[in-house]
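Hey, quick one: can you model this chain's 3D structure?
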Amino acid sequence: MEIKGTANFFERVYEIVRQIPEGRVTSYGAIARSLGAAGSSRMVGYAMRAAHRANPPVPAHRVVNRIGVLSGKMAFGSSSLMQQLLENEGVEVVDDRIVNFRAVFWDPQEVISL
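Sure thing. Here's the predicted structure for all 114 residues.
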C-alpha cells in the first residue's frame, strides 16, 4: 500500500538528488526544505531507501544527515559501499562522517527553483 502523494514526493526528491554535483553532498533536511516540506526529512530518507528502483538512477550516496554522517549506509547493501562511492568522487570520509562537510555541502535552495 502506498501513502497518497508519496510517489510524487519521491520523484521530486529524486529530481533534486540527480542535480547534486559529483564530489558534493547534501542533507535530508536541506532537500526537504527546498521542497517546502521542512518537517519531512524522514520522508526524504524513505525516498533514498527506495532510490535503487528509480530510473534514471539517483546518486543516493550523496545524501547524508545534517552533520555529515553516513546515516543511510546500510541501505546500500554493504556497510562500506556508500563511503566507497563518496571517496571515488573525492569526498573524504572518516569514521562514517564527511571530513570537510561544510566545504562539500551543496544546498539545493541556493541552486534550484522548483
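One thing worth noting: The chain has a mean pLDDT of 92.
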